[in-house]
UniProtKB/TrEMBL annotation:
Pathways per UniProt: Carbohydrate degradation; glycolysis; pyruvate from D-glyceraldehyde 3-phosphate: step 2/5
Biological source species: Novosphingobium sediminis
Gene Ontology biological process terms, A to Z: gluconeogenesis; glycolytic process
Residues at which ATP binds: 202, 325, 355-358
SUPFAM superfamilies: Phosphoglycerate kinase
Name of the protein in question: Phosphoglycerate kinase
Amino acid sequence: MSFKTLDQIGDARGKVVLVRVDLNLPMQDGAVTDDTRVQAAKPTILELADKGAKVLLLAHFGRPKGERVSTQSLSMVVGAVEQVLGREVMFVSEIAGPVVSQVVGILPEGGIACLENTRFWKGEEKNDPELVKAIAENADIYVNDAFSAAHRAHATTEGLAHVLPSYAGRSMQAELEALGKALGEPERPVAAVVGGAKVSSKLDVLKHLVGKVDHLIIGGGMANTFLAARGVDVGKSLCEHDLAPTAEAILDAADASGCTVHLPYDVVVSKEFAANPPSLRTCNVHEVAADEMILDVGPAATEALADVLKVCKTLVWNGPMGAFETQPFDTATVALARTAAALTREGSLVSVAGGGDTVAALSHAGVAGDFSYVSTAGGAFLEWMEGRVLPGVAALSS
């Protein structure tokens, strides 16, 4: 898809630029505990400020449902934004109207201001044209740098792109370019790793991927549902037995499209879900006892999956292979992640990963920085994997 970037913005000196960012930051005891999303937006904000633009940040924070909630004011995070940017950031308690107009008047070229939580206004989530118009009246340019909110057709994620000259910020640009390489026009063969607890949460992802990739590697609890659909007794493992027909349909669709589905043939089992339990053992999937549960992919299958990655050129990863938060059920996830990272470092694999559990799993394996791209977007990344059109992205290409 084609979209304009900051490279096409021209002379920004003195221009008022609305920059949609993601400042929905985790907090504890009134302090920001993770500034990753601010770090992602930093290059765009500073590039525009250094070009002499007056930068107005737009973002949501929590779910105030159209009401002013003091604990969800963006004033809570401005200090963290200032610390990351190394610049002073003015906080503005409105997003439109005369107050913002006055701020624009006094803000120097290169100045940065953070407007209030956009979700304090009911028109934000309704994508109200009147609110869009009111916000746009105080600006010259719109930049969207919040891919994580691009699956929402809200006033500040989609509406503004239709009424102002619109561009993708550096973080959005990097995300879209990485996703394009992964499933848009990928170099083949393409592998997808899809893990997690339940098939039901990723049905649309699986249905979409079997028509897009050459190898589909299924891990986590959802692999148990597919094993059960194939007649394997998975004991007391997490399993959605009622989805067996759906799993069969996905396997049939994969066969029809030439996609090879990889399920574990040896597994790590235990009678209890606890760290290093005494009942821990590795066995063939057909040897799982009635009182045991599958908690990770076994070593033989993990090695075979690593061999699959070695013949692929592109990898998309979403979800862990086992219950990685508890040792030793992180073994398969860590091993496969390190294989993907090594292949990426040597230049033979383009690797794109995303989703909350995935980021945590790759960080746990110590390889998040070695993948070609790791998306911190949750819902937006998942919807992209489902093949859906993301309103905030589509608006930039219109």
